Amino acid sequence: xxPNNFTTIRDLLRYAVTRFNTANLFFGxxxxxxxxxxxxxxxxxxxxxxxxxxxxxxxHLLPDETASVLQMIERRTTERVPAAxxxxxxxxxxxxxxxxxxxxxxxxxxxxxxxxxxxxxVDDPExxxxxxDLCTGSGCLPIMLADAFPNAQVDAVDISSDAxxxxxxxxxxxxLQDRIALIESDLYTNVSKKKYNLIVSNPPYVNAxxxxxxxxxxxxxxxxxxxGGTDGMDLVRKIVAGAAERLTKNGILVVEIGNERAFxxxxxxxxxxxxxxxxxxxxxxxxxxxxxxxx
Length: 295
Known about the structure:
- This protein is of the alpha/beta class.
- The protein has two domains: 3-87, Helicase, Ruva Protein, domain 3 (Orthogonal Bundle); 104-294, Rossmann fold (3-Layer(aba) Sandwich), CATH 3.40.50.
- It has eleven helices and nine strands.
- Strand 3, helix 6 and strand 4 (153-158) form a beta-alpha-beta unit.
- Helix 1 (9-22) packs across helix 2 (34-45), helix 1 packs parallel to helix 3 (63-78) and helix 2 (34-45) crosses helix 3 (63-78).
């Protein structure tokens, strides 16, 4: 296929959708279907506004522009690389983050809860002084948390120095160096003993059976950031176990566990988990209060 076969964005969009669907690509890293993914990759490659496809559909492209788009389509199709790694960006709501293969592609449902400041569980957002994010990856949640809780210092923890290097870039991009501290630590190990009003985590939680069935796109992500042990709860158990001594009197713990609700409830039979509503339903994020944990 040569660039001369295509003259407009409409031509390339149709071609990309057909290629993606024929190859049975998996969409779970920002887009949910071939059309949205194709539109995003084309607009990004041509440096056009990501929310304005229609005005440019019939724009005629230069040969080198067409070649650049075709190269992007080809890599996405043949290498099955998540789009975010091709463009080095990922979006959560209105927030843009730099990403590469050192971190998983940001896609936390906790991000949907942050703009509402975890109401009604946090009754006075301005009084939140300290927030802890465990397994921070690219640093996306701490950046959103710093915005949502204007008086909070945020400690962002990851065991991976590679992930923290990416997080540093994002923290610097948002000029939040004074409010977000990046800590290399195996969960709580290197974290100071201060009390937190809020502990948040989107940890590795994929169970062993599901890990073996992941689509190829996920193989490009750090497996350390996905695998949660036999039932997916290896790190979640440690996070819950250590939270009581780290939370303030009225503090809360918020943990994302994806599709593992059954395993989570089996892992904590004596705790009544509160399930928070997100666009994925009512079984991907749970909440525990300091009172529950200390009891």
